[in-house]
Amino acid sequence: MSLSDSQLEAVCHLLNDGSARVTAALDRQVSEFSTEEQKRLLYLLKKREASEVILPPSLREFHYSQIEIAFSDWSLSSVEDVDLEDACFLLASFGHPLEDMEMKKDELQGMENHLRGRLEGISKADAVVDEVVEYLHGELRFDGERGNYYDAQNSFLNRVLERRRGIPISLSALYLILAGRLGLPFHGVGMPGHFIVKYQSDEEPIFLDPFDRGKRLSVGDCAAIVRSLGYHFDMRFLQETPPRRIVERMINNLLGIYKRDGEDDRATCLLRCRELVQRV
After folding, report:
1. Residue 205: its pLDDT value, please?
2. Computed over its alpha carbons, how large is the radius of gyration of the chain?
3. Residue whose C-alpha is closest to residue 42's, from 96, 90, 89, 88
4. Residue 144, number of CB atoms within 10 A of its CB
5. In whole angstroms, what is the distance from residue 259 CA to residue 172 CA?
6. What's the pTM?
7. Is 227 helix (H, G, I), strand (E, B) or coil?
């Protein structure tokens, strides 16, 4: 017989204890829960805002399996339907299984609405780009995280939105997600060692560095960045990077961090997710 919500609520309450003995005892019980019961347990923990709870290993493994299933579904989307925002929130949920990402989506909705109002009546490429940059970096103060660059939190969209800090690819993803919602022709540009965005105007593309507060870049500036990182520059580096390759690169960044820190369980899950993304 399926467990009731009150029984699962009791498990949630016990998980707040935080002791190793209680967690071990609960792990044995949770491992015997049905798939539906584990889903409901995770849902109840999210609604209790229990983000500080340490998940029992069996529930964490179940969560990882759900992330893999979701990435499998995402990777099978058609080119037209593939959604960078969905993948970014999957990665955020991977890193923060007990956070309700709907709240962050609501925050994005507010940003979209505000930016839509600011762009009303503006059509020239330079003016559109200036407005987006001023809103994200001037008003909201998004900037590159330099002091703790290799912190995994810089790769999770929920933390980028919360802290207003990120690495080049996560800040670029924010541009692209808002652009997708607003129908703006921003595209990701995955140069070797550094990720930027470009606005594809009717004339020359406008290159921006979200990690440097939306600074405009010439082709020469892009070449200088690439060469400073030890690579030979090729104009092909400035081509659009499709969403699947952006997500693959984000996963690679996290894999490097988790392998460095010896977090094998997380790395194993992400390796499987990367394989799913790479199959198309």
Report:
1. 96
2. 21
3. 96
4. 18
5. 24
6. 0.94
7. helix
